[in-house]
Amino acid sequence: MHRWMYDFLTNYDPETGETIPALAESWDTSDDGLTWTYHIREDATWTDGEPVTAEDVAWTFTTMMTDPAAAEANGNFVENFASVTATDEYTVEIVLDEPQVTMLALDVPILPEHIWSQVSDFGAFNNDTDFPIVGSGPFILTDYQPNVSITLEANPDYWRGAPKFDQLILRYIDDPDAQVEALRSGEVDFVFGLTPAQYEALQNEEDITVNAAQGKRFQAITLNPGARLQDGTPFGDGHPALQDPVVREALVHTIDRDAIYEVAYGGLGEANGGYIPSRYDTYHWEPSEDEEIGFDIDAANRLLDEAGYAPGGDGIRVGPDGRPLSFRFNVHGDNPQYVQAAEMMAEWAREAGIELVVEPVSEVGSLLDEGTYDILTTGWNVNPDPNYVLSINLCSGLPTELGGPYLSDAYYCNEEYDRLYAEQLSELDVDARAEIVKEMQRVLYEDNIFVVWGYADALEAYRSDVIAEMTPQPDPGGNYYGQDGYWSWWSAVPVGEEDDTAGGSGSDDGDDSGSNTGLIVGIAAAAVVVLALVLLLLRRRGTTADDRE
Predict the structure, then answer these.
(1) Does the pTM exceed 0.85?
(2) What is the mean pLDDT of residues 321-330?
């Protein structure tokens, strides 16, 4: 939603995924890569009529640099910033301590200084009561009813051209099946996050078009390696056996990734152990045959036998401390594929003398916060630039105090991984950086703490009697919801207006006329608008897998 409401310095081309101008219409960098100069377009305005200037950009980044609450989500982007200065009304200069490869992928919404500078506490401010919300993007947030709906209006003055639909409503529908029925009845015009069964059922429906896009999101589990603070202080009640690399490796040998995607996902996905989805081929890595920790129950049993985990009377292995290898497996209960995959894994693990007690829960965030888990399901969307999702595994992502903010998704800390992260961040050559990123994924894979299964297809459907066309990302063959940009909703054309050429994929042109029509999107998972400063995700884990971006 932040892409819809606020412009960022740059955007991602819907066809290629490469960086294109947005709020910054051009940029320059010094020969040493330490000084970046962004030239802000002069035709961008805030929705209250004020001009967007370089001062807004400088204020946004400087506030992140100086206020921990403002940097809670995207602070990794500014950790290497020495200074940010508006050298004139439409020029911003950023000076770095070290070269930083993400300077054309700063996924940070630029905020209006004249509004946000009045906020006294960025950690407490939700920006969800004084409507319309002042922004600079193609849509304006005009109403928010918790767990009911989110309403956005087209921005008629958006510099790239106004969206063709005048209104975009996200409507919360608690039950996924009810969501599909709402699409069938015309109550909503678009749904996403379909199950394979729902996708198949909608394929032959009149006036409904389905879309299966290659996944930009991975599905995974995290094994609790012993929750701890940055100073090493342990907390929580994770099973101590999962701190043993042998147990973790044996457990991973009991996971049949191919079967998960064939059965639980109906073949609509790709089994893979690489952290970066294959959709992003530049940075994607997968283990070689020699490196693969594949499905091999015999290998799992052999590892555990050699490590002294002997079977007990009930067939469940017991550790040297006398504690059985019985692990809580907390699964997002609102995700039927996760539940089915977990039950499959429990059957396989039993063959190696490991018990997985599958416990569907409404949310896993509090369990992760408190370290009171053994195994959790998880998943993240990955952007064209992988830096952000790589950063969630740094040692600095661990909390500094009990109950304090943190980024880590698995209490993971590996000094080699941290070293490689710093190396890729300053490597400006794409091919050289890609090799470092692939090595980081190899390290993650071998540690068996963050265990990726693969990438499910993004399954969506829309009313083709309402929406004539819209732009996927990538174009062609990509997804509509959850893009790295706003292309789908900005470009969506109402039926009957196909000949109107305003807007369009990546175009800088277009008239400012709207369509006087509305577009309604059904949301199966609770939508919560928390518009704290550059808050693209909460450091405390979200209520569902899809809250993690």
Answers:
(1) yes
(2) 97
Q: Are residues 241 and 304 in the same domain?
A: yes
Same domain, 288 and 416: yes
Asked, for residue 142, whether it belongs to a domain, the answer is: no
| Stretch 370-377: mean pLDDT | 97
Distance CA 283, CA 105 (A): 15
Q: Is residue 489 part of a domain?
A: yes
Round to the nearest angstrom and report the end-to-end CA distance of the chain.
Answer: 11
The Cα–Cα gap between 155 and 531 comes to: 19
Is the pLDDT reported for residue 256 higher than 50?
yes
Number of helices (H), then strands (E), in the chain: 14, 23
The dihedrals phi and psi of 341, each to the nearest 5 degrees, come to -60, -40
Structure tokens at 445: 């894979």
453: three-class secondary structure by DSSP:
strand
**pLDDT bucket at 129, cuts 50 / 70 / 90:** confident
Cα 530 from Cα 125, distance rounded (Å): 9
Q: Is residue 534 part of a domain?
A: no
DSSP class of 348 = H
Question: What is the per-residue pLDDT across 450-482, written as a single tens digit (0 to 9) for each?
Answer: 999 999 999 999 999 999 999 999 999 999 999
Q: What is the pLDDT of residue 189?
A: 97
Task: Count Cβ atoms below 10 Å from residue 499 Cβ, excluding itself.
Answer: 7
Q: Which domain holds residue 60?
A: 1-124
Residues 168, 514: Cα–Cα separation, whole Å: 12
> Rounded CA gap, 36 and 63, in Å?
18
Whether residues 269 and 190 fall in one domain: no
Please name which of 203, 200, 177, 179 lies closest in space to residue 189, comparing C-alpha atoms.
179
**Cα dihedral 540/98/280/416 (nearest 10):** -70
For position 23, which CATH number holds?
3.90.76.10
Tokens of 412: 């993971």
Coil, strand or helix at 198: helix
Strands 190-192 and 458-463: antiparallel
Please state, in angstroms and as integers, the Cα–Cα distance from residue 493 to each residue in 170, 342, 474, following that order. Answer: 18, 41, 18
Q: Are residues 203 and 87 in the same domain?
A: no
Torsion angles phi and psi, residue 164, rounded to 5 = -80, -30
- Per-residue pLDDT at 500: 60
CB atoms within 10 A of CB 477: 12
Backbone angles phi, psi at 239, to 5 degrees: -65, 125
Decide: residue 214, CB within 10 A, 0-12 exposed, 13-18 middle, 19+ buried.
middle
- What is the chain's mean pLDDT, rounded? 91
The two beta strands, 167-172 and 326-332, are unpaired
Residue 260's contacts (CB-CB under 8 Å, 6 or more residues apart) are 271, 341, 344, 345, 453, 454
The burial class, CB within 10 Å (0-12 / 13-18 / 19+), for 465 is middle
Same domain, 18 and 107: yes
The count of domains in the chain is 3
- Coil vs helix vs strand at 67: coil
Peptide bond between residue 132 and the one before it cis (omega within 30 degrees of 0): yes
